[in-house]
Amino acid sequence: MKLVVIDGGSQSVYRFEMPEVLIGRSIENDLRLNSGLVSRRHCRITVDNGAVWIEDLSSANGTVYKGERIARTRIADHDEFLVGGSRIRIELDASEAPKGENPATMPIEGLQTQDGTGDKDVDRLATFARIATLLAAETELKPLLELIVDSAVALIEAERGFLLLAQKSDVPAGPLDFADFEVRLARNFDHSDIPIPQSRLSAGLCKQALTTGRPVLSMDAGRDDRFDAMVSVEDLRLRSVLVLPIQLGEKTAGVLYVDNRMRSGAFSEEDLDVAEHFAALAAVAIRNARQVDTLLENNDSLRMSGDQIQRLNASLGRKVRDRDAELAVVRKELTRERGRYDYNEIIGTSSAMRKVFQVLDRVVESDLPVCIAGESGTGKELIARAIHNNGSRSKRPFVCENCAAVPDSLLESELFGHVKGAFTGADRKRRGLLQQADGGTLLLDEVGDMSVEMQKKLLRVLQEGEIRPVGSTTTEKVDVRILVASHHDLLTLVEAGKFREDLYYRINVLRVDLPPLRERIEDIPLLAEALLVRAAREAHAETPSVAPEVMSALACHEWPGNVRELENEMRRVVVLADGMVRLEHLTKTILEGAGKSSRSDALAPMVKVDGDLRAAVAAFEAGAIRVALENAEGNKSRAAESLGISRFALQRKMEKYEIDLDPKASPKSPASGEA
Questions:
Q1: I need a labelling partner for 380 at 20 to 30 A (CA). Which of 82, 186, 215, 478 fits?
Q2: How many domains does the structure of the chain reveal?
Q3: How open is the CA angle 225-228-232, to the nearest 5 degrees?
Q4: Within a domain: 75
Q5: What confidence tens digit (pLDDT) does each residue in 113-124 have?
Q6: How far is residue 245's CA from residue 405's CA, in Å, rounded to a whole number?
Q7: Per-residue model confidence as pLDDT tens digits over 228-272
Q8: Does residue 576 share a domain with residue 429?
Q9: What strands, in cross-sheet order, belong to the sheet with 72-75?
Q10: Concatenated DSSP letters for 9-61?
């Protein structure tokens, strides 16, 4: 069996003795074709009792026989088929041919004319048909452009091929300037890419085709009088050249440029006619590929828009749920009288917090210094901001400084400022915090950690209302309301000689004592709910529900870190919980603390409640009433006062939850009642 491979203008003959031949790109094939259009294992030829069968091996670009892609079919002796860009003709030996047939004289159907001279034309027509089929099947732009250039070079039997396309796909009608086009692909006859393609073709010939909208054909461009003024023709030593504009209706989509620098007269008028038909096919294929790209881009855009809409809907849903939860907290807080001013940033409805709000109502109306005392994490800065925001200085600056976080050597400069050159590194004048807060409020947090020397200088500000920047010889007047906060007992520091007594009485004119969280357990459900909503918003996550037994454990914990510890716990459970916060999501210390707490027995009914957060809060309320009654030894008036409600309201709630003065009695489950 003999296989004749025709690739472009070259022809190679291979002889095989075996009845089966594998064709493909990889080395294990019997016939190896080095083309990017050929698959690793492309097709198989089998000779069986004189019958020749060709079978495609699931190749990417297919095996084409008589203009159609085939899976497995029988072919005749001397028939041709297309593999990639190569034509392959099979010729059987006499011993392989079927009986009664002479392969030397057997006619090839469709490849003979009456005078026997039509073989070349029919071969070209068959090749053209196969190329048209491949162009129609390819919808990806880059492989399509490679197929167009390689096919044009093979069809016209050229040396090189170039494809220029408009830089913008939506081009106006009529001829365009050469600068509007770019070389998208440049290939040699062996399918290798041409480096620096822009300088390897004649720009003058391309411009002429674009300007006239007609093809340019030259048998020998170097001797063609039409191109005497074109330097590029001589520099590139061009001989046979064919340039065709690719038209899409009245629009010029690109330019197909093929040449042969080796010989003159390589292209004829007949080649021009074939090339024009090919350019028309290429234009349609390019338009179809671009339309497919546009559809894919639109689909991607629609999918991305759909995903964005889903994300926005999810975000909006989270915001609505968070807002509902916040409003629920506000509604619960509004059920009890708090004060005349807006303290909406401070969550609490317990009797201890009601006393704080009553003190704040009086403090905000004054301009005197305020000392805010409380354990770490109780919200001293929040109280200071409430004093400022509700006072007469609310439109002026609020400045805060943590005295424990700044070394004493720098604290003076931070508070009073400095002039240029006051010390090493003072390259410019700097205003201190007291100057920045002029007309407003300055909070000195952890004032108990301030050195005695700094205490003297602060006392001068409080006594005379003036400061002296570091390095300056002059003083400046300032009008600042001073608020101080400390987790230390300042009076104890005074007695120990660590805090100036005169400064203590200057800053302790008005005092706000903040209760620790363990003394306001009634506020824990509201605080937990509000902090959980805030933590979920910060984490861009949905707010999980809280199991009743979790709320019970939170209420029984002593909370040495106070509200700050609770806030960190809520941030933690938002990350760990999946829709529902359960006991296993809480830290070990909280679970152990809840088990050891003296309140756990009194609040045990909460653990048995099944339901949402409202049921948990109601159960907690019932437990809190029992604790208050036990602490008041059954005295309803004192229990009501400790709970911050009237004796009549206490009596109603006791009837609602069926609570009597017998400490062993079990209250009614509040799961179906109101909080």
A1: 478
A2: 4
A3: 130
A4: yes
A5: 333 344 556 667
A6: 76
A7: 778 888 788 888 899 998 887 777 888 999 998 877 888 888 888
A8: no
A9: 31-32, 20-24, 43-48, 51-56, 72-75
A10: TEEEEEE--SSEEEEESSTTSSEE---TTS-SS-EEEEEETTEEEEEE-S-SS
Q: What is the residue range of 481's domain?
A: 351-515
* 608: CATH: 1.10.8.60
> And the tokens for 244?
């065709």
246 lies in some domain:
yes
Q: Is a pLDDT exceeding 50 seen at residue 81? A: yes
Q: Specify which residues 91 forms β-bridges with.
A: 2
pLDDT of residue 120: 58
Q: Can you count the helices (H) and strands (E) in the chain? A: 19, 25
Collapsed DSSP state (helix, strand, coil) of residue 396: coil
pLDDT digits (tens, 9 = 90+) for 168-186: 665 555 556 677 788 889 9
Q: What is the rounded average pLDDT for all residues in the chain?
A: 81
162 confidence band (pLDDT: 50, 70, 90)? very high
Task: Let me know whether 398 and 547 are in one domain.
Answer: no
CA distance 375 to 369: 20
197/623 Cα distance (integer angstroms): 86
Q: How many CB atoms neighbour CB 466 within 10 A?
A: 13
Amino acid sitting at position 262: M
For residues 398 and 388, the answer to whether their CB atoms sit within 8 Å is yes
pLDDT for 167 beyond 80 = no
CA distance 326 to 534: 9
Q: How far is CA 519 from the centre of its chain?
A: 45
Residue 58's contacts (CB-CB under 8 Å, 6 or more residues apart) are 39
Tally of residues, the chain: 675
Supply the CATH number for residue 390's domain. 3.40.50.300
Last residue of a domain, one of 90, 120, 150: 120
Give per-residue pLDDT as tens, 138-157.
Answer: 878 888 888 889 888 888 88
pLDDT confidence bin for 425, thresholds 50/70/90: confident
Task: Name the 3-class secondary structure at 664.
Answer: coil
Q: Which of 500, 515, 530 is the last residue of a domain?
A: 515
Measuring CA to CA, which residue among 664, 647, 653, 661 is closest to residue 621?
A: 653
Q: Is the pLDDT score of 603 beyond 70?
A: no
Which are the contacts of 3, defined by CB distance < 8 A and separation ≥ 6?
A: 13, 14, 15, 16, 21, 31, 45, 88, 89, 90, 91
pLDDT higher than 90, residue 573:
yes
Q: pLDDT class for 616, splitting at 50, 70, 90?
A: low
Report yes or no on 146 lying in a domain. yes
Per-residue burial over 52-65, b if 16 or more Cβ lie within 10 Å, else e, is: bebebbebebbbbb
Cβ neighbors of 200 (< 8 A, separation 6 or more) are: 160, 162, 186, 194, 236
Q: Which amino acid is at 356?
A: V
Residue 337 lies in a domain: no
Give dist(CA 274, CA 268) in Å, integer. 10
User: Tell me: the pLDDT tens digits for 331-383?
Assistant: 555 544 455 677 878 888 888 888 999 999 999 988 999 999 999 999 999 99
Q: Round to whole Å and give the CA distance between 440 and 478.
A: 10
Run of H or E including 259: strand 251-260
